[in-house]
Design brief:
There is one protein chain. By secondary structure, this protein is mainly α. It is about 70% helix and about 0% strand. It has a domain of about 55 residues.
Length: about 90
């Protein structure tokens, strides 16, 4: 589960980073400013501001998944089953 969440996190960051770099370059061209490579944009404060805005909801949903996975697997929970039980 941890590896899956890490892959989702990295994937969502990359899917945010690349289009955001393109949008920032389009905005820079409209204002007559110099464009940045995606690697230069990686250290741009605007990217990190946008990312932290997105991460608030991602961290909340991840915390909910972790808590629910603990609560629902507790012994005696109606959602729990013995480890060796095939069904």
């Amino acid at each position: 589960m941890g590896i899956g969440l890490l892959l989702l996190f990295v994937g969502s960051f990359v899917l945010h980073w690349l289009p955001s770099a393109g949008a920032a370059n389009e905005d820079a061209i409209l204002h007559g400013e110099a464009t940045q490579s995606v690697w230069q944009y990686l250290v741009d404060p605007q990217l990190w501001f946008e990312s932290f805005q997105n991460w608030q909801s991602e961290f909340l949903s991840t915390a909910v998944l972790v808590v629910l996975s603990i609560v629902l697997r507790q012994r005696g929970s109606p959602e729990s089953k013995p480890v060796a039980d095939p069904f």
